[in-house]
Amino acid sequence: MTAVIPLNSRTILGLNQEAYQQLRLALSLNLRRQLLIAVCDDAALQNELATRLEADLNGSANGTSEDNGPNLPAVVNLWLDRQNLDLARQAVLWCKQQGLTHPSLVKSLPTFQMLGIDQLTRYSPALQNRFLASLTHLEPLLSRLEVRLVLWVSRPWLRKIRQSVPQVWQLRNGLFEFAGDPTPLYPVEAIGPAVANKSRPQPPVLAPAPTPAQADALETQAIDFWTVLTEDLSALEAPSAPPASQRNETVSVTGSTDALTGAVQPPPAAIPSLLIPFAQNSARSEPKTPKSEVLEFETLELKIPEPSAPEPKAPKSEVLDPATLEQATLKPVTPKPVTPRTPAAVPPPNGAASPLAPPAPDPVIPDAHLLALWQHIQSLAQQQAGPLTLARAYLFLGQTCRDRIEAGNHHPDLIDLALEAYTRALPNLKPGSPEWGDGLNDLGSLYWLRSHREPHPEGIIHWLQQSIQAYRAVLGYPQPPSEEGLARLHSNLGTVYSLLANLQDPTQNLEQSARAYHRALQYRPADTFPTEYAVLQNSLGAIHWRLAQQSDTRNHLHRAITAYSEALRYRSPQASPQEYAMIQNNLGIAYWSLAQHERPVFLLGQAVAAYRSALAYRTLSTDPAGCAATHNNLGTAYWDLAQHQDKHPEGQRTLWQQALSAYETALTAAQRALGEAPDTPLSFDLWATFHSAGVVHDQLAQHLPEAHFDLRAKHLDQALLHYLTALDGWRALPDRLDLLTNALIHNIRLQFQIRGVEGQNAVLSRIPAELLPDILPQL
Questions:
Q1: What pLDDT digit, counting tens, does each position of 603-619 carry?
Q2: Which of 565, 685, 566, 669 is nearest to 618 (CA)?
Q3: Cβ atoms of 46 and 114 closer than 8 Å
Q4: 184-219 confidence digits (pLDDT tens)
Q5: H or E segment and range at residue 99
Q6: What are the residue ranges of helices labelled H in 363-433?
């Protein structure tokens, strides 16, 4: 006789091993905003599986998970009973009891296993309807707290949820079925509490029920899970009450009767009448943005490079042609060549996403976690998961890639994988939702980053335009994001427009950039957000400085000075010395530029003061590259001031000495900076600084008294040395080579005037032979 093994014996776990391992793997991936449904008709086996899952995950994480804080378990069990029918509220209450009231802590929540739903069969239809209505609270719970939920149900309750609350059914991210005998439907009173709770851990003790006034207020309260965590939970710590018309549990609800349980099945229209409206505009923490940005990467705003230093003009009294001023520009990062790829496009807000999974990450990305996520998406696609489930899986894959990128991995394959994930996720996310807005912002930043890897100007333009389109898609939606999100979006938009201005329509794109920064400032007032306000003002100042090179010069330079001065009011040198120095340097450049058009002596003096303030923190030891750039700017300002002291020879020579000292320090600092980081380009033309120092040496040699013969001769020799050094860097630049040739001719003439024919011949012997045909006829 063959022995019959009952389905609910412990040996059944072997048959359920595959489903159990799939459930365990899905949770171990630590995906956010996950709703997993586990189906098991055997109550005892259901409890055993849940207990084992709790032990496995808590044990493997040593009491924590990758996302959790050090004192939180990886899994928490929440039990449903007559007094606690709203599982979402139980989760919020658990967070409150654990002191998780700060957004940074709320993002570190465990997985919640929700048990005891099968026991609802023994309760009245009114309580069952109340439970079904409360399930709609799971969607805002998932979107606001980014939790993982495992809903343990029996097959009858699975059908009931699917029919009565279809919006919750659509939220599912996975369905895991376990084999087992159905638990007999004995009344709770018949079997007694001891038998009913056999092998079941006791649920946590919650707060007492609310007063009738609290229950009434609860009916109209909008659920904002970020707010309730930090406010009084007296209303939420009690079960939700039905509307006044349904508080008598014997009231009948028109609808079909469930054949299995005998409970009244309400029509779909009956469920929404029990819902508590959800606040759509509640605040949430925003994801990190890329580290090269000034936003915070925590966001990574896209930082505006500071203007490069101007080159000094040659003396007007000399035969040398005036050197042209090097205008400060924002040049795009020169990318390394990469294999051309098909550009991704910003998905339409309500477009249809492809259900196919993205291609597997290339082998050059040795990231097991990314591969596991891709395989998870493949399995979801094979299971014909809903579009929202796939969209959120793609979104999590994209966010994971984004985190790798923020950490410094800028491999083109990783960027393209992130772009692919986001473009597949966004069409099936709800337009206007926080995850939709955050996803488009991330997509815009990824397009910006992708432009840095593009070797061709037309490719850079394409990616920057895609970035602008992504940011504008969020800003153009009727329901705006939070003020923090609006500030970030407008700031990023301003940065991308400024980069696009380097390649096409400079005036139009710079004006768009200025408007975007002005809009960002509306959401970041100085009193509340002093640091972000200062960063935005500095960026706005750089844009007005560039606009001044296009048109309406004085107006834009005055605006640049105003913006830089505002930034300095809220930027402490003690807290951020290098940022403070950068803004002071930019202010000095703006003053110097305006001095070319009005009040030169006063404005040049202001420029000198700003540069010196910057140099208090841009020292040779702390920032050699910044020290070099600002000393170069300071030398230019002193040189220009000297041109306005032609009636005061002593004062003029003093200013020339100060200019020379600044240039020589700039050269020393540049040498140190290049020695420490040879591949890092300087923000100014080093050869122009050698040329400028040579011009000042010549001026001092010409204007010093004749009695200082040795000092004059030394200045002439130093000038020649600087010119010849500049020649090494300018050989391939014809216009600069002409400028340098004129400087050499001037130096040779001074040599003849001061040292005679012998001095002139000594200099000619040091001139490169290829320059002599141009120099000798002019002597």
A1: 999 999 999 999 999 99
A2: 669
A3: no
A4: 443 333 323 332 333 333 333 333 333 444 433 333
A5: none
A6: 368-382, 387-406, 412-425
